[in-house]
């Protein structure tokens, strides 16, 4: 959740969506994202909507956050009904941040209880929380399972102390295998998040982190190239010449190394930055984003999408608390996407995943651009062929195509 929201039109205080949002809603999946905006320390690279305790004053206490989130949940369920959107149970729930696990486990349980009461959870719902390795202990993880969580995503980022220091991460590398073991013993699926390309990180450092992550035997791994966001501490350090800017060529080498090492360990890529040990271990919540289904985002700065209408909440926790306490929509602005914009976004998102984009989603002119992309090694040739009984061909990126994902989309759309 980047710090700068897009522009948009004012969002109505009653939260009612346009009629187009309800069209076909019964056939779409539905999920919840819960943004917990608190962090113990602000990481130097982070541009997300997060706050440390020293940055918040009255009206934004962590102690009241679960109640505020539940107030938005009640408002949201009512707004969807009043908009004519089909009532659906949640297939996926994702608590992100920030560091959700800075709150007591009882607060996360209370917010999950709110989702159950307002929308319900499907029988096999995936319920994930992000966590820092030093923000949980064995009992905390057991409490998450008791509350109904099924999955935890640990922010490992690196196994190399000097890389963790550059990223302002507070945990020690040896903490990661310990918390992974506790999570597994509690009954949670485990994902590990890694970041590559930090200033001063070498290819050997990155391989060391990959090996350490695999030694933990996770179900899922995410690996993200470090992006320097304007306004962050790290951007200022680079501007002052204190640390080196990430090397894009080195980052490409690191990505290729990750794909090679993870494939050898039995992990398959299913989205440009994500690998899973099996299809069942893929993040269903994130796949829902990439496939453009519906979700309600709870919390300060959270983004939502229902049937082509997208909106985002006010960013500051105090402003958010004031709105939900008054029974008003916390949305700051929204945009209603037209059919062509939705189609273009589908091309952008589905060319990132292993299932690819059905070629029928492209115009006739765009389909003529597929063979040259295959010839240049950016799209899989076999995937583009129609399969009897399974539908049309699909645009699936090769390894090189994943490295040049923006180029692939630009070339397809012209």
UniProtKB/TrEMBL annotation:
GO terms for cellular component: cytoplasm. Keywords: 4Fe-4S, Chaperone, Cytoplasm, Heme, Iron, Iron-sulfur, Metal-binding, S-adenosyl-L-methionine. GO terms for biological process: porphyrin-containing compound biosynthetic process. It is found in: Cytoplasm. Residues 1-20 are annotated as: Disordered. GO terms for molecular function: 4 iron, 4 sulfur cluster binding; coproporphyrinogen oxidase activity; metal ion binding. The keyword Protein transport does not apply. Coiled coil: none annotated. CDD domains: Radical_SAM (cd01335). PROSITE patterns: RADICAL_SAM. It comes from the Bacteria. Probably acts as a heme chaperone, transferring heme to an unknown acceptor. Binds one molecule of heme per monomer, possibly covalently. Binds 1 [4Fe-4S] cluster. The cluster is coordinated with 3 cysteines and an exchangeable S-adenosyl-L-methionine. PANTHER family: COPROPORPHYRINIGEN III OXIDASE, RADICAL S-ADENOSYL METHIONINE DOMAIN-CONTAINING PROTEIN 1, MITOCHONDRIAL. Belongs to the anaerobic coproporphyrinogen-III oxidase family. HemW subfamily. This is Heme chaperone HemW. The lineage of its organism: Bacteria, Bacillati, Actinomycetota, Actinomycetes, Micrococcales.
